[in-house]
Amino acid sequence: MIVTKLTEAFGLRHPIVLAPMGGVAGGRIAAAVANAGGLGLIGGGYGDREWVARELAIVKDATRGPWGIGFITWSMRREVLDLALAQRPRAVMLSFGDPRPHARAIKDAGCTLICQAQGEEEARLAQEAGADLVVAQGTEGGGHGGSRSTLPLVPAVVDWVAPTPVIAAGGIVDGRGLAAALMLGAEGALIGTRFCASDEALGRERQKARLVAARGSDTARTRVFDIVRGYDWPAPYTGRALRNRFTAQWNGREHALAEALDVEQARYRTAADEDDYETALVWAGEGVDLVRSIEPAATLVARIAAEAEARLREGVRHVR
Amino acid sequence: MIVTKLTEAFGLRHPIVLAPMGGVAGGRIAAAVANAGGLGLIGGGYGDREWVARELAIVKDATRGPWGIGFITWSMRREVLDLALAQRPRAVMLSFGDPRPHARAIKDAGCTLICQAQGEEEARLAQEAGADLVVAQGTEGGGHGGSRSTLPLVPAVVDWVAPTPVIAAGGIVDGRGLAAALMLGAEGALIGTRFCASDEALGRERQKARLVAARGSDTARTRVFDIVRGYDWPAPYTGRALRNRFTAQWNGREHALAEALDVEQARYRTAADEDDYETALVWAGEGVDLVRSIEPAATLVARIAAEAEARLREGVRHVR
């Protein structure tokens, strides 16, 4: 058992948070992580009302442990936030956009406000919103993020937002990464890609198989999947995904893609329906080098925590 | 005192290596780091014979501690390597290029061979060369490097090259970063940018002042300084430097820069001579957020080591 401000805040057994991956972190895996002693965050994503309502029902049915929900701030409608708050999540996490207009509603609901920061600007907004916890997210992470790397970003965010506790994200997949996050001054780790390759994650089996086969060097940050799917992401954010024929064709030619959208959107949708991941996207973080199996989420939580404990115990033995 | 395979290999008091920064890590700072209990590596860079001979004489005169020298492999001529080996360095570090043709000469001289890896390919070449130590260098680092980030890269390299010991590099500037590196499975940290902002580093005072004033978000990877300086770097490597008017003008327009080289080269040289860092380059890693002072190298070594020891001691207290 590792005790930090994060575990104390939620009564966790392990300082591990399931990243609220849109469409992937549903109620089932959020409950599995919560039941295993971590904090399970549902991936509310762009805020699809039906999806959110369904997954909220699933998590409430499957756990009495601590769970919450994350949203993409610039896309979230208030009615979907209210729908979530009515289910009494322990935490709401806001990423990518100004959290300040929503902070009051979240805190008034008795909910812990977690804000994600990719750099100095987001850290400042998190503080102004009165965030209870700040996630410092490095560019290594799969899916949407910024351009700063986890190892130097985390201590910088810790200093900027002190005394607000910080959670490290981006590139953390095993106990070595979790122990490193704690040394950097974080109170725990938010983990995405590793939980994608779990039994309980939503997502197609062939996507999970691609993750297990991939190397970190197969991943890259790109805008082309946002463009072809019709999402108007604000400028500083890109998504880290496995490179494929689609990224090879369109990276660096984003304007041409936008002009060919009618044809390409139809082609993309067909590919996604047909599990063709040479065109369709598989989000993946750089840490995918260390993802070599699909396992139950509870097994992953237990192993990551045990490895981190062992590392922390060994670490002090180096000091003479 | 932190004991690892790195400290045992060289008889160090601290698992800290001065990055062999070309033109910056001269004999004086290499000696200062060695005298403070770390490993001091002179930055042999492209292999300028006169510079190398002078700095070798300085380090030999100033320390009996462990020192070595690093070279840019693709640029290094054998006669300069032989010149260095004749001075009996404890280590030679090879970066950026195939180390295999030089490994025998280095090992036959009784020297420890350190190879730097930015990813899987370089890790494989390091193993084939029989490297005694492998530096896993993340994209966070200042100066030349690759595209992978330190936190997920280090454990991946540890697994790839096991049982060869690994040193972490890129984004490490304080004891938090060093302690994190050890948790990731590294045996120590190779530190550059933090030592740039030291009394003993070569380089202009205004460059050092720029480092102290800069933010991590002011840095970016670029090729334009290599192009304008006439260095023909192999494709995967770029340099992380402070962004300025020159990068704003030419990033993304590298072909145009190559065509305007006569004019731009003259302009660049004048700017460098005149300490004009809106045109001339200042190498800087992302960790520069945490660099807020110019201090003696020995002070930095002692503080980083003491912070790391404190972190490692605190870390185990989190385990219940």
Q: Helix and strand succession of chain A?
A: HEHEHEHEHEHEEHEHEHHEHEHHHH
> What would you call the structural class of chain A?
alpha/beta
CATH superfamily of the largest domain in chain A: Aldolase class I
Strand order of the largest sheet of chain A: 1-9-8-6-5-4-3-2
Globular, elongated, flat, extended or rod-shaped: what is the shape of chain A?
globular
Rg of chain A, Cα atoms, Å: 19 Å
- Multimeric status of the protein: homodimer
**Mean pLDDT rating of chain A:** 97
Number of helices of chain A: 15
Q: Residue ranges of chain A: pLDDT <50 for 5 or more in a row?
A: none
Greatest contact between two chains: A-B, 49 and 49 residues
Percent of sequence in beta strands of chain A: 15-25%
How many domains of chain A? 2
| DSSP summary, beta strand count of chain A | 11
Biggest sheet features of chain A = 8 strands, parallel
Helix content of chain A: 40-55%
Give an account of the 3D structure:
Two copies of one chain form a homodimer. The first copy, chain A, is an alpha/beta fold and about 325 residues long. The first copy, chain A, folds into two domains: about 5-205 and about 295-315, TIM Barrel, CATH 3.20.20; about 205-275, no CATH class. Chain A is about 45% helix and about 15% strand. The first copy, chain A, contains 15 helices and eleven strands. Chain A has helices at about 5-10, 25-35, 50-60, 80-85, 100-110, 120-130, 150-160, 175-185, 195, 205-215, 225-230, 245-250, 255-260, 260-275, 295-315, and strands spanning about 15-20, 40-45, 65-70, 90-95, 110-115, 135, 145, 165-170, 190, 220, 240. In chain A, the strands form two sheets. An eight-stranded parallel sheet of chain A has the order 1-9-8-6-5-4-3-2. In chain A, strands 7-11-10 form a three-stranded antiparallel sheet. In chain A, helix 3 (about 50-60) packs parallel to helix 4 (about 80-85). Chain A is globular, with a radius of gyration of 19 Å. The two termini of chain A are about 25 Å apart. The model of chain A has no long low-confidence stretch (mean pLDDT about 95).
